[in-house]
TrEMBL record:
<feature type="transmembrane region" description="Helical">
    <location>
        <begin position="53"/>
        <end position="80"/>
    </location>
</feature>
<keyword id="KW-0812">Transmembrane</keyword>
<feature type="compositionally biased region" description="Low complexity">
    <location>
        <begin position="82"/>
        <end position="101"/>
    </location>
</feature>
<keyword id="KW-0472">Membrane</keyword>
<feature type="region of interest" description="Disordered">
    <location>
        <begin position="82"/>
        <end position="110"/>
    </location>
</feature>
<keyword id="KW-1133">Transmembrane helix</keyword>
<protein>
    <recommendedName>
        <fullName>ABC transmembrane type-1 domain-containing protein</fullName>
    </recommendedName>
</protein>
<feature type="transmembrane region" description="Helical">
    <location>
        <begin position="21"/>
        <end position="47"/>
    </location>
</feature>
Length: 110
């Protein structure tokens, strides 16, 4: 029986076919693993890029909002100052004109 297995060429062909099938299986497994690793790396890179873009957009929006709020506050403060200074100057000029007219009138009567 052992001599039959050794001298039988079919047994060697079966062994060679099995080894060939094993090589094909290893190559297919290697290709699948490489494809999976490449896909995982691409997905991780895309996720990182998306997160970075979202963070940059949020930072830009926050900075723009802060700048707009500061500009609006400056405009409001300047407007309030201008309106209060103009109203106080108009009050003081009206006081001066009323005191000048009364004082001038009293001076002419003498």
């Amino acid at each position: 029986m052992v001599t039959l297995l050794v001298h039988d060429p079919q047994w060697i062909l079966c062994l060679a076919t099995g080894v060939r099938a094993l090589y094909v299986l290893v190559i297919i497994t290697f290709i699948v693993v490489v494809v999976v690793v490449v896909v995982v790396v691409v997905v991780v890179v895309v996720v990182v890029v998306v997160v970075v873009v979202v963070v940059v957009v949020v930072v830009v929006v926050v900075v723009v909002l802060v700048v707009v709020i500061i500009v609006v506050l400056i405009v409001v403060v300047v407007a309030v100052e201008v309106s209060s200074s103009s109203s106080s100057s108009s009050r003081s000029s009206s006081r001066n004109s009323s005191s000048n007219s009364s004082g001038g009138g009293g001076f002419k009567q003498q």
